[in-house]
Design a protein that fits this description.
Distance between the termini: 42 Å
Strand order of the largest sheet: 1-2-3-5-4
Order of helices and strands: HEEEHEE
Shape: globular
Bound molecules: guanosine-5'-monophosphate, zinc ion
Strand content: 15-25%
Largest sheet: 5 strands, antiparallel
Mean pLDDT: 96
Low-confidence stretches: none
Length: 116
């Protein structure tokens, strides 16, 4: 799976990306099709298809990612806040099946759910 996964290849540096952050366990890079002035993704280096495949052994890794998100957002200029999005599975609109947290901000962020 990791051989054909585009985000595994990005994390290994085999496909170029605009890197935001990297350590032993995680990698962050700008989205190729940003939906706001700042839009990057934070991924584990471990191939995990989605949140649906995560379990208790991933507690620490997922906790680390959530705590890292505001630090990286601030470094990218999002001092006033940001939106995090994790699309999960086809039902959640996920297109790349390697778990990723979208971190989005810097523009006019519309309400996520519109009530008409
Ligand atoms: P998803 O819909 O799975 O939550 O989000 C996948 C995201 O990955 C999309 O926003 C898409 O623009 C981004 N993406 C897909 N392929 C690449 C790529 O090769 N490089 C980068 N930087 N982003 C990508
Ligand atoms: Zn992967």
């Amino acid at each position: 799976m990791t051989d054909s996964c585009i985000f595994c290849k990005i994390a290994r540096g085999e496909i170029p990306s605009n890197k935001v952050y990297e350590d032993d366990e995680v990698f962050a890079f700008h989205d190729i099709h940003p939906v706001a002035p700042v839009h990057f993704m934070l991924i584990p280096k471990l191939h995990l298809a989605s949140l649906m495949e995560a379990d208790a052994i991933h507690n620490e890794l997922l906790g680390k990612m959530l705590l890292l998100a505001p630090r990286l957002a601030k470094q990218q200029g999002l001092e006033n806040g940001f939106r995090t999005v994790i699309n999960t599975g086809k039902g959640g609109g996920q297109e790349v099946f390697h778990l990723h947290i979208h971190i989005i901000g810097g523009g006019n962020i519309p309400p996520m759910v519109r009530r008409s």
